[in-house]
Amino acid sequence: MSFDLIVKNANLPDGRKGQDIAVRAGRIVAVEANINGEAGKIIDATSRLVTPPFIDIHFHMDATLSLGTPRMNRSGTLLEGIKLWGELRPMLTKEAVIERAMRYCDLAVSQGILAVRSHVDVCDDRLIGVQALLEVKDRVRDYLDLQLVAFPQDGYFRNPIAAPNLNRALDMGVEVVGGIPHGERTMEDGRLSVKTLCEIAAKRGLMVDLHCDETDDPMSRHIETLAYETQRLGLQGRTAGSHLTSMHSIDNYYASKLMALIAEAEVHCVPNPVANMVLQGRHDTYPKRRGLMRVPELTALGINVAFGQDSCMDPWYSLGNADMLEAANMAIHATHMTSYDGMKACFAAITENAARTFGLDAYGIAPGCNADFVMLDARDPIEAIRLRANRLAVFRRGRIISETPPHVTTLSLPGRPQALAPVSYAPVEAS
Length: 431
Description:
Elements: E1 2-10, E2 19-24, E3 27-32, E4 38-44, E5 49-51, E6 54-59, H1 78-88, H2 94-110, E7 113-121, H3 128-140, E8 145-151, H4 162-172, E9 176-179, H5 187-204, E10 207-212, H6 222-232, E11 239-243, H7 252-265, E12 268-270, H8 273-279, H9 295-300, H10 324-334, H11 340-348, H12 352-358, E13 373-376, H13 381-387, E14 391-396, E15 399-403, E16 409-410, E17 419-420
Parallel strand pairs: 1-4, 6-7, 7-8, 8-9, 9-10, 10-11, 11-12
Antiparallel strand pairs: 1-2, 2-3, 5-13, 13-14, 14-15, 16-17
Helix pairs in contact: 2-3, 5-6, 6-7, 10-11
């Protein structure tokens, strides 16, 4: 048999080792040891990890790389970030948003991200962000899947132009209904916004992804409403609650009830570990709350948890470099998920779990899947997170679209090796 590509001697995220991956016409046609046959290109993975691509399931591409315009977020707080976005939004041009978004997509691909769900603000009558990102989506479709969420940043009811503009954005081709119920003037308005937004999604046959309870207030209850509306409208598996940071502050009795409701409704949960860690708990003295949802407990209940990056060099977060392994690394530390299974679950949260939330078809390392995968300078998922491993090669439909050399350092130390590769520091496996 002949193939376009064979990647040989790969380790896979599920623990299989020494596997060959054969590709024909942009699809994986075989995954097994010792595949024989001619191929247009053969690559030896040398026991490196080959994983499905990373997915950023929560991002704001209309704001990315805007850091410093019109000024810096001096306090580094969520509230100043929101105020700063209000100053920047009237200054946006379609051309500037496209340029920044395209540059960000370049960076994302180089880091092995091949799918992004981006919220786009609709509280601007010009809908500059919507126009720009729809064009970007078309430009990058050959190498990156971009899914857009119509996001009423200032509140669906709180801002009088939000409701009509959300519908305009959906009519233009935005695929997911967004919202921010905790940003409404009252708890009741927040509840009604969840109900209304879910009804819009049900009527249009769309998914829902709400910024939900992104607050330290233990009385914020909008994820409870989202779970209820999901079941009432038959939206199981099509809704996501993003952030859910209030879950860190609620009491354990209510948490046990709430998480059971989320599981019953099949709501996807999307924490943003890096951003949530620095934006929440700002009113605390000591001890300071981490501001992350209860990832271990949600995972144990079988709830689909997928990590997002949220921001990258924008009004809300001055750091970031499109590295989903950083999000997984932060989650491991912040949620005490240092068990073997916990660390593997954090890797799944930036790959297969995120693909499930996204609704991505033909994703994975298996026959019939798209030949989209990443070869990492690590041998397994845990090591990839520990090293934040270099993306040696990023494949889209079986074609290499990005390459990065292995991490090797030259030493000048008497009596010591001349070179050092961090990947060589892997723990020795028990026989």
